[in-house]
Amino acid sequence: MSASAPRVASLLPSATEIVRALGLESALVAVSHSCDFPGRVEQLPRATSTRVPSGAGSREIDEIVRDCLRRGESLYRLDQALLDRLRPDVIVTQSLCEVCAVGPDEVERAIPALTSKPAVIMLEPHTLEEVFASIQAVGDALGRPAEATALVEELRRRVNAVRARVALRGRRPRVAFLEWADPPISGGHWNPELVELAGGRDGLGRPGRPSRTVSWEEILGWRPEVMVLACCGFDEARGREELELLRRLPGFADLPCARSSRIHVMDGVRLFSRPGPSLVDSLERLAAVLGD
CA triplet 31, 32, 34: central angle to 5 degrees? Predict the structure, then answer.
């Protein structure tokens, strides 16, 4: 890290991913409890923690989340003492989702007590285009504008390559993209957009809008020809366990996706839930399964 590089505390995985993609991993002094990238990040202090107990079931997690939201409480804790000790120049956080990571309220309460008085970069992307803008904003703030521009251009090239391949296909299948199984929750924000770019039709999600709980009757009525389950916070192995909860529901076996075995479980930790460069990896994976 150069002498002029800022000291960065990243409070969410997508921000850590962006910082690493810009060649500034050595500038990180702290990350979130969810940052699971290999190498140096594994050794960094964790500035956040979660109130969700380890090993909780999906229904229990959903109830904890909804209860915290009703009470106006955060699901996460911010280690203010750690941040004060590490003296970051920049804190990268988010204001997009209270369920995903530490929100702006916790950061705003902590900042006045920090001796380093760091600048705060608040990310709030709802669409793929806004994700690209976030990458550029982080690059600009950390003194890497050219690197950010080059990264975004390469990501756009890959998106356009997917778009060109999809254009050669015939009809678009009906897709149920779910980010939770119990209760069923449709993917929101950029995920319906990714489904469309990948060659599908998402009749449950709302592009650019938050994810939402959907009734099983609504899913049955959509009659998806492809189902993608990418549970937020669960890896592929845990996602396969969650799929069994859906298989037990009445009418599941009669869905077109079940009859044709076009049901795909994907890593909900590293794919689709993190609004950073890896969303384009997710798009390419999704385009591949929709093209089967």
Answer: 125
